[in-house]
Automatic annotation (TrEMBL), chain A:
Keyword Signal (UniProt): yes
PANTHER family: ALIPHATIC AMIDASE EXPRESSION-REGULATING PROTEIN (PTHR47628:SF1), PTHR47628
Xref: InterPro entries: ABC_urea-bd_UrtA, Leu_Ile_Val-bd, Peripla_BP_I, TAT_signal
Signal peptide: 1-37
Organism: Azospirillum oleiclasticum
Record has Transmembrane helix as a keyword: no
Protein name (Swiss-Prot/TrEMBL): Urea ABC transporter substrate-binding protein
Keywords: Signal
NCBIfam families (alphabetical): urea_ABC_UrtA
UniProtKB/TrEMBL annotation, chain B:
Keyword check for Magnesium: no
Transmembrane found in the keyword field: yes
Superkingdom assignment: Bacteria
Predominant location category: membrane
Protein name as catalogued: Urea ABC transporter permease subunit UrtC
Bilayer topology term: Multi-pass membrane protein
Subcellular location: Cell membrane
Pfam families noted in UniProt: BPD_transp_2
Organism of derivation: Azospirillum oleiclasticum
Length: 419, 375
């Protein structure tokens, strides 16, 4: 895969600029120094042998475009390509066009490790935008630390990790959980909770944090159950829910299991308009598979919804649909993936260098005001300050944003008192 | 088939010599460390493929669960490396320092009993071979004594692979769950992540593989090897001749499992982690495909088959990240349709006669060895 399309587009843009430039020729001739200053010498901004030339810089995109995870990760790939194209149209990074090398992680953790090594060692890319599951991130992390690469990781995840070589553009667990629970305590008067999850590290860690927060506030966890990934029989837990009658079902069911879970809830006569259900694992992407009518009435706790009403988001949704088709759906992670190239560009420009060490050091404090989710900022711990929002699922597959925190939530990957 | 100077013991040793030249000299001189490390990873699968040639090709036992043994060997190695990486110094931010990080995340406060012995390198290395063979022994005795074979055996091995995956994923506090055991750093203080270490490990791996191939050749040349072929072709006749068929089958199944375990351990050392994605049904079937592409009757063919399939996988997926699976599918279908005996069959029918003719021009024809080749 090459970045031909983007190059073609930027060629067109270039031609347009050249035509404009001819008109402005007399003016341009008067300020050659300024033009020179915009593109600093390669030797000065790339001291560690990354793939940076006088006119281009190479980055990597590493997601699964084949295998079970491709459904989830395709949105991230599309968002990253969109961001790269937009950045190139604005003149690139430090005067250099971004060229991307895409590799397929194939939903297979060792393949992720192999491809990340290829991107860092052979292609010497200046940054990698990629990974989705925690397992793939865990597989590539030692590679990024060993070869000193920079990874922008988009997915909301369980926390318990922090690395110089990773910028986490999704939320860690406390950012997704605490504010959402506080909201149901207050708005719904909820006192008992039933925790359900797929059986792996993210749902388990998230539910652990949720349980501590619920118990700290003096409320009760009525039950906690886990099911293997891909599980499709939820009748036993649904019966238990009917018996225990919790105020809130707290669901962290992942992937294809969601379809079975929500359909069986509905079939069992649990009406989500009466029974409060809160999830942190269903975005617009998952809604496509579940079917809006099966989940309408549930509350999702995210930082981004496609329906967010702000100018940044409107422009983003429009550009995304223009590039990838009017039917495209944009979920929380897709938006977080879109932030990656932008945050990297801003960081490189602040550092005045592509060098990984300087980019890592310059990252804390980087602000991105153009984010579709609204203002975000990188914390010292390389996670993002972002707001928590609550969306009410509608039958048309979108969410109504009904609540957002007043302040940005601080990322806290190692939460004291929740471990 | 007419006798050729390339069959028989001498021919096989010549083949091993050529392979040794390739993996010990040609590849290290022509590839950079990154590509060489990839070849090293492919060669760890070749351990399994070689075991499958013995098990499936020679003895007719098709196992669709070799990933189990590859994974067990890999996990044994990974447990030792993880314990070494989890010293109290490196894990001091945890609630319980000194235990692997994933245990801490799962509220474990002490090391489970079955992890304790993996503090010892000697124990771990022994376990790499013994744990897979022990499980293979149990499966073998349970199945072969009851005369379960053929498709039923293949399905049962597949089921065991699925069960083991679910077990590992479900018990994440003890096994690392779906993430596997990651972030392995040193072996007795020796950093396995550096380029030098990768080079050393590559050569250790290649030498071990060659050793295993020689071992398998010896098995095939022995009386045992000929009994295996006999029971593949006519099991009842061997049984009526007074042999206890189940014992022979169990032995070869255990041997294949032990080889797979060694491969898994070398994989962990070279790649730096182990996860349940090597244990399940899909990787197990992939391992059979390597063997089929290479030619299930030929030990050397299996190695070349593994190298070819993995090389194709890597290069197709680098060039066409969205379409490469189709190319792989086409490769498999092509090989099975056109060359049912795989690369080795191709070599036998097309290359060997030519080489013989070349040689025949210079020398008078030599009467071939009278011993029957295992094929």
């Amino acid at each position: 895969m090459s970045s031909d399309d983007i190059r073609k587009d930027s060629h067109d843009a270039l031609r347009r600029k050249l035509l404009l430039g001819m008109a402005a020729l007399p003016a341009a001739a008067m300020m050659p120094r300024l033009a020179f200053a915009q593109a600093p010498a390669t030797a000065a901004i790339n001291t560690t042998g990354l793939a940076v030339t006088d006119s281009t810089v190479k980055v990597g995109i590493l997601h699964s475009v084949t295998g079970t995870m491709s459904i989830s990760e395709t949105g991230s790939v599309e968002a990253e390509k969109l961001a790269i194209q937009q950045i190139n149209e604005m003149g690139g990074v430090l005067g250099r066009k971004i060229e991307f090398i895409q590799e397929d992680g194939a939903s297979d953790w060792p393949t992720f490790a192999e491809k990340s090594r290829k991107l860092l060692v052979n292609d010497k890319v200046a940054a990698v935008f990629g990974c989705w599951t925690s397992a793939s991130r865990k597989a590539v992390l030692p590679v990024f630390e060993q070869y000193n690469g920079m990874l922008y990781y988009p997915t909301f995840y369980e926390g318990l990790e922090q690395s110089k070589n990773v910028i986490y553009t999704g939320q860690e667990a406390t950012q997704q959980i605490l504010a959402g629970l506080d909201w149901v305590f207050k708005e719904k008067g909820a006192k008992s909770f039933y925790l359900i999850g797929s059986d792996y590290i993210w749902p388990r860690t998230s539910n652990k944090i949720a349980r501590k927060h619920i118990e700290k506030n003096g409320f009760k966890v009525a039950g906690e159950e886990y099911f293997p990934l891909g599980h499709t029989q939820f009748n036993s837990v649904i019966n238990k829910i009917k018996l225990t009658k919790p105020d809130v079902i707290y669901a962290i069911v992942v992937g294809g299991s969601n379809v079975a879970f929500y359909k069986q809830l509905k079939a069992a006569g649990i009406d989500l308009k009466k029974q409060t259900l809160m999830t942190i694992s269903v975005t617009e992407d998952e809604m496509l598979g579940i079917g809006g009518e099966n989940i309408a009435g549930a509350y999702a706790c995210m930082k981004y919804f496609q329906s967010l009403d702000n100018p940044n988001n409107k422009a983003f949704v429009e550009a995304f649909k223009k590039m990838w088709g009017a039917d495209s759906v944009i979920g929380d992670v897709t938006q977080a993936a879109y932030l990656g190239p932008w945050l990297w560009k801003l960081t490189v420009e602040k550092a005045g260098s592509f060098d990984i060490d300087k980019v890592a050091a310059a990252s804390p404090g980087i602000e991105f005001k153009g984010a579709p989710e609204g203002y975000v900022r990188i914390h010292e711990n390389h996670h993002l300050w972002s707001k928590t929002r609550i969306g009410l699922a509608k039958a048309d597959g979108q969410f109504d944003v009904i609540h957002e925190t007043a302040e940005l939530m601080e990322p806290d990957p190692f939460p004291k008192g929740y471990q | 088939m007419t006798r050729s100077f390339l069959t028989g013991t001498r021919g096989e040793l010549l083949g091993v010599g050529v392979l040794a030249l390739l993996v010990l000299l040609v590849l290290p001189l022509s590839l950079d460390v990154f590509r060489l490390n990839l070849v090293g990873k492919y060669l760890t699968y070749a351990f399994v493929a070689v075991g499958l040639v013995l098990c499936w090709g020679s003895a007719g036992i098709l196992s669709l669960g070799q990933g189990i043994f590859f994974g067990l060997g890999g996990y044994c190695m990974a447990m030792f490396l993880k314990l070494e990486a989890s010293n109290p110094e490196a894990t001091k931010i945890q609630s319980t320092p000194g235990i692997p990080d994933f245990m801490d995340w799962n509220q474990l406060t002490s090391l489970p009993w079955f992890w304790e012995p993996f503090h010892s390198l000697t124990f771990s290395l022994a376990a790499v071979v013994l744990v897979p063979s022990a499980l293979a022994f149990v499966i073998g005795v349970a199945m072969f004594k009851r005369r379960v074979g053929g498709v039923y055996f293949a399905i049962i091995t597949q089921a065991i692979a699925a069960i083991l995956t679910i077990l590992i994923v479900g018990q994440q506090g003890y096994t690392g769950g779906i993430n596997g055991i990651t972030d392995l750093r040193t072996l007795k203080g020796w950093d396995i992540r550096t380029d030098e270490a990768k080079l050393v490990l590559y050569f250790v791996n290649a030498a071990l593989l060659l050793g295993c191939i020689l071992l398998c050749l010896a098995v095939r040349r022995s009386k045992l090897g000929r009994i295996l072929v006999a029971l593949r072709d006519k099991e009842d006749r061997v049984r009526f001749s007074g042999y206890d068929v189940a014992n022979f089958k169990t032995f070869v199944f255990c041997l294949a499992a032990a080889l797979a375990g060694v491969g898994g351990a070398m994989f962990t050392l070279q790649v730096g982690f182990m996860s349940p994605s090597f244990v399940g049904i899909v990787p197990s079937i992939e391992l059979v495909i390597y063997c089929a592409v290479g030619g299930r009757l030929s030990l050397l063919g299996a190695v070349y088959g593994t190298l070819l399939v993995n090389w194709a996988k890597t290069s197709f997926s680098e060039s066409f990240p969205e379409l490469w699976l189709f190319a792989m599918g086409a490769l498999f279908i092509g090989v099975v349709m056109a060359f049912p005996n795989g690369l080795a069959g191709l070599f036998q029918t097309h290359v060997v006669p030519r080489l013989d003719r070349l040689r025949g021009r210079g020398l008078p024809p030599v009467p071939g060895p009278t011993r029957m080749a295992a094929e």
